[in-house]
Amino acid sequence: MMSQFFINRFTFLFRLVLAALLVWIPTGIQPALAAGTSYYVDCSANGEGNGTSSSPINSLNAVNALTLSPGDSVLFKRGSSCSGSLSPQGNGSASQPIVIGSYGTSSARSRIDASGQEDAVKLRNLSYVTVQDLELTASGDNTLARRGVHVLGQDAGELYGIRLNNLYIHDVRGYMPSTVPSRYHGTGKYANASGGIVVEVLGSSVPTAFHGVTIENNIITAVDRQGIYVWSNYCQRAELAEFWGSLCTSNWKPATDVTIQNNILSDVGGDGIAPMTVDGSLVQNNKLSGFNVRSQSPNAGMWTANANHVTFQYNEASGGKTTSDGMGFDVDHSTSNVIFQYNYSHENEGGFFLLCPQGKGKSVDFIIRYNVSVNDRARLFQSCGGEIRNGQIYNNTIYSGDTIGPVIYQESSAQTQAIQFRNNLLYKEGSGNLSWTLNDTTFTVDHNVFFRVPDSTTPAGTNTITSDPLLVHAGGLATTDYKLTEGSPALGAGAIISANGGRDYFGNAVSASSPPNIGAYQGAGLSVPLPVPLASYHLDATSGASATDSSGGSYNGTLIGGPVWNASGGASAGFLQLDGVDDYILLPPLLNPASGDFTITGWVKLGAGAGSSQIIVQQEGSSGRSLLYRDTASGKLGTYLGNAALLSSATIPTGAWTHIALIKKGTTISLYINGQPDASASRTAESESSGFRLGSHKSPTSSNVNFRGGLDEFRIYGSALSSTQIVKLYNDAGLQ
């Protein structure tokens, strides 16, 4: 007896033939097409079924034997697992794609384990096929090709409409340079690549290309070598870099309309997302954390080569390993009209951007704008050495924190680097210096903020601003920390750029006719938020023996020796006058300097110098240090935190209110005077839990004397304030 499986199939084919025969009928009414057949698969089922939900197919071999038609679907039972490679046959249509997905109520995905075969899923010479909602894995020993999904076109002509959606791809262990004896840098990429998702065109007899490929909403982790990779052997053209010549078997025939979006990738052995030989591609809203982890060869986070009209936007790339490339993003060789905009790059060992033209393979007409880089190392921008024509790098915000000292632009050859570097905001904090390795006169620098970038290393630029741009919270890992605040010199200080994209990183409109802000933020200056302090002493009472803590923390201080209240004349309203003999304020234990970050700020008005130093803030206890003092001989502000003196460059004068601050952030301590950063050093703070004194050493001597003068608005925070917040505290007094 003919099985129900073949009866269903025959009925479906008969309906298609009948529909085709009816097309010619001159009634003006088009017959309805069949909805397609659903084939159900449960590899845990005991016997081979006929493909219905009550009698599912139980092997990939049986699925691979089907010839699917438009509108058909192959549905794998959720929670079940199949071993081998799924290689469906047949094409869908634009209106009725073939769908490979899942069914059932289990929360677990349907799983396909390649079990030693190259591909968990292989789509060869197919059009209009969607694969979705599956879990895919292809383990191995990293010595052979392995892929989660392999979309292959080979001598097939034009191929359309592949969609890969909501897949969980993991533990794909393909070969790469670190795992083969030759250590060839191209192992696992180019033709016959390995990785999570590989879309490639091979062959040479029939020109072949994919059109309308969509890769979206996938989770890809623990894959080697590539995360998402697009390749074609049809890549030969006049403007191709010479070293690719042997890789390209035929004339350039690019993939078109390739969209890679909303994917999450992590722990990638090599490159993250890399569409090669494409013309018209959009890579957006992807998050990549951890790439170039195991390959031991050059790899970048997201990049393209031998391609035209590719846009990367709203992506995040972090955790790139090694300086063998290792940058978050890359405009590579043989490219034109590539745009990187609205992306976030952070903590990549190789740096922020690679620009890699080589030989004939120039990089032409690219734009890098409205991106944010935080703590990218080694090189912010590096050129491989080829020629760059009409590159534009503008309105990016770049922060480099303590111990990080990347090269801003590393030029590697004498080839022309025709780049306009405009409206960019570079902010350096802590130890380590930003520098340039650049001699090209066609590289122009204009209307940038270079904060703490040494003048001696900066190429001749115009309209450069070197003062603090007053970011919301420099050093934070949220991109909103890199907006501008009220009073920033970067507000409205940029050069007008035509065709500027119309919006910034945060979605603010960018005017075509008014000067923009410098950096990635184009909104109005924001008010500066301040955290609630551990303790806050306004010191504007008119009587009493207590210094009231107004923060709500109940850390009230006790006046010792008879300091005098003054109702007016302070930095803000009244103040407390100390006599320099035995007056001070005794504060309870507030913090242990070794336990975390903190900030101490306040206003002082020196009456007269005395001794070797006059103590402003002192911690008691055997390990308590002079946290803030004035060095009498030089007039400089000092701290002895970490058992070594750090002195400011600016001085504390007599007879004038001076705002001072000490910030501990990690192992870096910094001194500020009148809102400006002045000195910093690496120190290991002593552990001490005792209380504090304002205006007195814990054991006063003729050298370490009490402070003589006024104190006002002292605050202690259990966090490291940003420079912008220090400026706000300084400005709030209204003495400027």
TrEMBL record:
The keyword Signal applies. Residues 682-701 are annotated as: Disordered. Keywords: Disulfide bond, Signal. It holds the Pfam family Laminin_G_3. Residues 596-724 form the LamG-like jellyroll fold domain. InterPro entries: Beta_helix, ConA-like_dom_sf, LamG-like, PbH1, Pectin_lyas_fold, Pectin_lyase_fold/virulence. Signal peptide: none annotated. This is LamG-like jellyroll fold domain-containing protein. It comes from Paenibacillus shirakamiensis.
